[in-house]
Amino acid sequence: MDLNADFSQRVVVHSDTIDWQPSPIEGVDRRMLDRIGDEVARATTIVRYAPGSRFSAHTHTGGEEFIVLDGVFQDEHGDYPAGTYVRNPPTTSHTPGSKAGCTIFVKLWQFDMADRTQFHKDMEAELGAPTEGVATTILHRDAREVVTYSKLEPGAVTTSQAPGGIEVLVIGGAVTVDGETLKRNDWLRLPDGETLTATAGDQGARLWIKTGHLPHAKAPAV
């Protein structure tokens, strides 16, 4: 299937308004944000694990990147609470699940196929002091993309003119972009050449942002 697969178009998804769709694994449901492919897909998805749900062991041929939004995600490598950013590059394998339940934002088949760097980070712990109300840390950078986490004080503004497209997930609080309010779990994708200007609401905001990656978007090589 193709979903929001025209990367030359601006896309906003208010994901909490979308119905959950079952995955092939009982107890694991998902909200699809963009997708090229069927069960093997270049995909951006919010995934919900019911308490006690678990996938069987599998290898991520095209890599997996995710953020734990709530609860605790678990596999044989460790327990990852809300606020953890994880990169499992191509060829890595695991058996994911959650004893208590969790929700993650996950991107599949979007790695440099030569990348072999596996890591996880506590995003809040990476932040430094704010500048003009915005604290930002670089979670990952390579020749294809830059991934950041930002925490905005109420009314603070963050901007980006990065080439190669811009993708934003609102992890907490709210921002206004081009007159539209984006709240927790809302997702925005701007095509190459557009500028991001996001103004935090009264409670501030926490944003995950990826830039530079859209020219590399393609279906999985399977």
Automatic annotation (TrEMBL):
It comes from the Bacteria. Residues 9-111 form the ChrR-like cupin domain. The keyword Methyltransferase does not apply. The keyword Plastid does not apply. SUPFAM superfamilies: RmlC-like cupins (SSF51182). InterPro entries: ChrR-like_cupin_dom, RmlC-like_jellyroll, RmlC_Cupin_sf. Keywords: Plasmid. This is ChrR-like cupin domain-containing protein. It comes from Sulfitobacter pontiacus.
